[in-house]
Structures are given as C-alpha cells and as structure tokens.
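User: Predict the full complex structure for these chains.
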Amino acid sequence: MNWITSYVRPKINSMFGGGREVPENLWIKCPETGEMVFHKDLEENLYVIPASGHHMKISAKDRFHHFFDDGAYEALPQPQVPQDPLKFRDTKRYTDRLRDYRTKTGQEDTILSGVGTVHGVKLVACVHEFAFAGGSLGMAAGEAIVKAFERAIKEKCPLVMFPASGGARMQEGILSLMQMPRTTVMVEMLKEAGLPYIVVMTNPTTGGVSASYAMLGDVHLAEPGAEIGFAGKRVIEQTIREQLPEGFQTAEYLLDHGMIDMVVKRHDIPETIARLSKLLMRKPADYGERTKTKTAEPVKKDMPEKPAEAANGAKKAKIEEVKQPAKATAPGATKEAAAKTPPAKAQPAKTPTS
Amino acid sequence: MYTYLDFEKPISDLEAKIHELKTLATDDRGVDTADEVQRLETRVNEAMADIYAKLTPWQKTQVARHSSRPHFSDYARSLFEEFTPLAGDRTYAEDAAIQAGLARFRGQPVAIIGQEKGNDTKSRIEHNFGSARPEGYRKAIRVMELADRFSLPLVTLIDTAGAYPGIGAERRGQAEAIARSTETCLNLRVPIVSVVIGEGGSGGAIAIATGNRVYMLEHSIYSVISPEGAASILWRDSGRAKDAATNMKITAEDLKQLGIIDGIVREPVGGAHRNPEAVIETTGATIASALKDLAKSDGDTLRRQRREKFLEMGRKI
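Assistant: Here is the predicted structure of the two-chain assembly.
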C-alpha cells in the first residue's frame, strides 16, 4: 500500500496548501500490527485502530469534540504570560519555535481548557495538545491550568485533566520547574473545595507533568498502551545499562503496579468520567444523559484492556455497595445509561469554539 | 590531595609553588622562604577572589558538584544538635539518598530533610549519589507529616542531581512519590526553610524544596534538567552542557532575579569546599533569621502564604 501514500500525499498537500485539516496520509499504518487503515475510518473511530484497538494520538480539539456533549464547550481564554523570559536559544530561537508551533496547531500554547457538560455533568477539562512542543509544561500551560482549576472551583464542578506531555519545557528553565508546585497548589485548592479531580493519562504522560498534577488525581484513568512514567526510557537504559522489560511504563504496567485505577478505551472515557463524577458528588444516577451523540461501533469486548474492565467492575461494585442507600436505582443505572448512550459520533463537525 | 577544578589552574600552580617552598624550608633550615611564601599566599588569595568573583554558570556547576563540598551530613553534624535520623517509608524500604529526622536547631526542636550524596566511594554508593528512589520521597513525606503533627519547623537541604531513573524506581511510582512529596510540603502548617546547598536537580529537588523561604548557596545551581541532559536533548550533544548551563539560567543570581528564591547565602572565597565551617555557619545564620521571622505567623497563614508565593512565581518578570 505504500505506493498509495507516497503517490497521493504530495498531490493532496498541493491541493489544500498543506493545511493542517488535511491528513498527513490517507492511509495510516497501525504501529502494532502494520495494518493500513483509511484515515476517515480512523477519524470516525476516534483515532483508535478498529481492529487492533491501538490508540493513536488525538488532537486536543478532536478530543474535546468527542468528550463534551454535542462537542460543545466554552473554551477558556489563554492567559497572558511572559514570552521567552530567558531569551533562550538552542539550535533555534525559542520565540521562533513558539511561532512555528502556533502556526502548526492553531493554539497559543499546549493547554486547551473548556467548560461544558459530559452526559449532563458540568465540568471543566484541560487537555494537552501534544503537537505543541510535545505538550511540554511551561509558564503558559501552568497558568492555563491554574485558571482552569480556579474556574472549576468557582463553578463547583469537577476538573478532568488529560495530560499528553513529555514533561517540562526546557527552554523556560527553572520557571517551567516551578509549574510543578504551582499546579499542585491548585490541585489542593480543588480538593479542599470538595470537588473531584480526575486524571486521564494519555500517551505520553512523563517527566515533570507525571511528577506533579498528573499523579495527584482522586481517580486515575489511562488510555490503553499509553506511556506513563517519570524518567525517559533512554535515560533509564543509559543509567542501568540494561534492556527494559517488555511493556515497561505502559498504562497496563502502571495498573498492575497500583499507580492507576483503570485502563479505559477512548470511547468509554466520557461515560466513565460522568459516572465517577456523579458518584463522588452524590448526584443521582439519572442526572443527565448524553444527547444526540453520533454512531460508531459498539465497544468490542475482546479489546486488550480486559484487566481494566475487571478493575473497573470491581471498583464499581465496591462503590455501589457503599452508596446503596443513596438511591434505589443506582446499581442498574450505569448499565442503563450505557445502553442508552449511542456510542460516539462519526462526523467530526466543527466545534463551536474553534 | 586536593581536587582542583580545571579553571583553578592559576591557583593550583601557585599553591604547588608554596608547598615546594615550605618543604624546602623544613628540609634546609638555612633557607628563609617565609617572605616569598607570604607573597605567594597573597597572590593565591587575589587569584581566588578574582576567579570566584566571575564564575560562569558551567564553572558554578562544577563547584556545586565538587566532591569536597559540604553535604547534608556535614550540616546535620555542625548546625544541629541531637540529630536523630529516621528510616524507612513503612511501605517498602529505607532509602539513604534522603536523610530525614528530628534535631535541635539552636535549642529548638525541628525536623530536617535533605539529600546526601556521600563523600567517598563507599558512602556514595550507600547514598546512591544523592539520587532518591520513591522510598526516599515517601520517607520525606512521613517526616513532613510528623513535623506538622508536632508543630516542628522544617528545614530542608537540597543537593541532588535528580531523582533516580531506574526500573524499580519507576515500578514503585517515582512520579507519584515526587508529586505527593511536593503536595505534602506545600500543605504543611509549620514554617519551612529550604536551602539549595549544592545541586537542585529538577523534580527530585522540588519535591522537598517548596519552603516559605527558599535560599541558595552562592555557587549552587538549581535547574529543571541537568545542563548535560538539556544539551543532549536540545542540541543532541551532551558536550554542549556549557551552553545549556548558560542559557537555562541556573545560578543563584539568576534565580534571585527571576524571583524564584528569597536570598543568596554567600560562600567563602574559593567556594564552600575551601572552608566548610564558614559556609555552614553563614547558612545557619540565614536559617535562624528566617525561622525567627516565620515564627510570628500561625499555621494557616504559613500555608496560605506559601501557596501564594508559588502561585505568584513568574507572574511578574
């Protein structure tokens, strides 16, 4: 199939001026199985390879579009912060890099924050755009996160964080390191306000991001196969001078070692978050439901996140046991809600905010 | 024998000559070298003052890592009385890279936490060169909580190249341990004074460095990643560490200017390693005055002020 990609790509690019809406390739290769998938099929399946279940990276905007009810949310403004405070230059000027990332992603910096409802539950969410400097945490990202937490506290609603980051933004030096305590303070403020903080670790969640707000959630979810850890693989290999074990630093590895609560397929994340939020905030199970979501394949049961489902189920049972008296309908309700929920949409329409 | 750094060549040359003259004087009592020795010693002091007054960020990195630089144990011994180290995270293991325990500071009971790098091969291995594993941070959390429960002020001394990157450390949740340690530190209702005494290496440092007051020794460094690490990522060449050190702004002067630290603890001419007693004494005076100042505030105020201090960082540059 390679001839298609190499033949079609330049033509497509020239037709649309290489804009970012145009897929890089019409056919995308599954990194696990090598299977070629048509880009539209991939897009419709939320960038999860249908056959293998491999989760590809998804842009911040596409993620929000799928996450919020009807793809509608209010985007929070990017707070103004000092640009290039260190006047940093490596092989390129940092200001030039910033300009390039802005052109490429259409975002001011890596964090996109929004307020909206998910299955009727109002919440604030933050997502890292990985294409912007590898999702790295700098002053702009830190401040955007601070503002998002402030908004969640004001709205008295949960905050959901989707990290996708290699760690700190080196070009901002110590100021990027200081985003670790800054964001941590906000996590504490949210917790003190009695509001849930749910983290959904996506590929990758490493470095200073995992060593601060990503690992401080009340509940930790992760997408299948996501790389999660503190030190980079290369650094570890150089330090210990041996090969790393198979599956090291994957979401499943972290689940096995007690660092996360469940591995959840991308399609199931909104429902899981809504359910957790309702349980934690003692809201009725039928608080709201997802409306007018579009169709996609129902969740396959033979996906690789089996242990996650087991853990998920066990957890659910446990919580429901405790919560029993709250509402008689509670135990059945999650299943019911899931059944009612038409799986995720197919046609990514423009979000009202973009 | 003394370890000279590469930029200390003029000093080592002069000191070698002095040594030679002194030996000559002892061997042959007829020769009077006293005048010459005195003249050379003045020149050494001048050269030292001159060199140390304008150290580059990379040279400071070398001084901060000098093997004879006073480490946590030296401070624990000289600055505190009754230091009683506590061990273990109560979950998995003891990690000697982080030392933590109870002590008296000028008579007042306090808790102290810091990384220890070790000073010879055996102790360096024992302390894992000051690079802690999750157990170290979980022990730190334990001692922080103990300080909070018994209203003991906390002093943290930071000296690490970074948290340890290893399979076991990752498996046992290095990221979570660091995050939790930072969180606990930010939450305490007791005064916290932090001093970077050598290297403040990234997340492994910040985990115990969110004090109400944060100081750095004059020739210590504090950075998001080691200059070598930054060079290998940004330039794909760890040989560019000098450039990375310069560009990243890692010196005490730089951090003071950026509003990250509250003050700089002056080192003796020629660096802390040339006169450990002096630098430990000056550090002690700085800690004492900070603690005295912080003692005026109640626990909730201390915590609120600490949070505000970090939230404000970088907003006014």
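Chain B has a mean pLDDT of 94.
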